[in-house]
């Protein structure tokens, strides 16, 4: 087991044994990308290793700068970079999201990227494997954090008859919310911001049925004063701060984002504390490395039973 298998550099997490980076934050020669969110997938890399949907989203967002050479793999399809054997497992986060399984000298390292255990009809469910080292995100690694049932959260919208301005992240959250509204609040009409609409179409092209939605039209929402839900990205949501005749809600797992809105909607696409503990139990690692958050709570929780290192 190599304690320096992954090291933090200015370019991002680096594996010297395969000469590649994971979710690099600056352009590099070889990068393995877990999923297409902007804090994990950056433009202008030379060789990009990822799933097909991740490439599709990167091309949609970055156009010709998405990457010079893409190497595309399905879940479980093995490939080698240097001496490291790599394969992708579904992370259950967004479309195409992947955990990255790496095997070197008979030791298995599992990098989770962003992941969740909750059911989500707009991406493949999470899957696990046993690993010697688990490298997990810790976005919500706090014993006080428990994500509620998203279906019960969406049910709150049924009691709101006014038009709703619903803040969402454009990739993953917007599509999940659209599908949930269609399933749980069928009387609602979903209108989609112009920056989100192409991603909805990409999901549909990949075979995910989001239900009914339409491109936002200012005249339409003025003419229909009830049961319209306008999905907008964060910047647009903030710009509507003084808008009248709209109930303002933001879908997020973060408590601070809920403050000042007309209703709270706790829907997260990340794993919560109990989910991380469940993941560790299933993966059964000898060591846990943490990143993308605060690993101090995990380090304290496992202080007598499992080595936890904060990257």
From TrEMBL:
GO molecular function, one term: exonuclease activity
The protein, known as: Exonuclease
Keywords: Exonuclease, Hydrolase, Nuclease
Gene3D superfamilies reported in the protein's UniProt record: Ribonuclease Z/Hydroxyacylglutathione hydrolase-like
Coiled coil: none
SUPFAM superfamilies: Metallo-hydrolase/oxidoreductase (SSF56281)
């Amino acid at each position: 087991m190599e304690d320096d298998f992954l090291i933090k550099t200015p370019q991002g997490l680096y594996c010297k044994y395969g000469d590649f980076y994971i979710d690099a934050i600056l352009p590099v020669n070889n990068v393995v990308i877990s999923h297409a969110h902007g804090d994990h997938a950056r433009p202008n890399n030379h060789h990009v290793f990822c799933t097909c949907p991740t490439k599709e989203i990167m091309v949609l967002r970055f156009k010709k700068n998405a990457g010079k050479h893409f190497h595309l793999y399905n879940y479980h399809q093995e490939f080698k970079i240097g001496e490291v054997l790599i394969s992708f497992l579904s992370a259950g986060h967004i479309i195409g999201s992947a955990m990255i399984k790496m095997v070197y000298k008979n030791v298995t390292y599992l990098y989770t990227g962003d992941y969740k255990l909750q059911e989500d009809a707009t991406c493949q469910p999470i899957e696990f494997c046993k690993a010697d080292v688990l490298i997990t995100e810790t976005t919500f690694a706090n014993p006080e954090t428990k994500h509620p049932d998203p279906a019960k959260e969406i049910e709150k919208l049924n009691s709101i008859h006014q038009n709703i301005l619903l803040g969402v992240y454009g990739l993953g959250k917007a599509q999940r919310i659209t599908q949930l509204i269609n399933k749980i609040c069928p009387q609602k009409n979903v209108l989609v911001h112009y920056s989100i609409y192409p991603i909805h179409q990409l999901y549909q092209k990949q075979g995910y049925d989001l239900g009914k939605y339409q491109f936002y039209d200012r005249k339409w929402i003025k003419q229909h004063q009830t049961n319209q839900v306008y999905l907008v990205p964060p910047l647009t949501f903030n710009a509507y701060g003084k808008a009248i005749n709209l109930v303002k809600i933001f879908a997020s797992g973060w408590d601070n984002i809920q403050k000042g809105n007309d209703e709270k909607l706790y829907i997260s696409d990340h794993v919560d504390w109990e989910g991380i503990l469940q993941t560790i139990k299933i993966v059964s690692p000898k060591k846990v490395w943490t990143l993308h958050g605060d690993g101090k709570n995990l380090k304290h929780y496992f202080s007598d039973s499992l080595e936890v290192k904060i990257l």
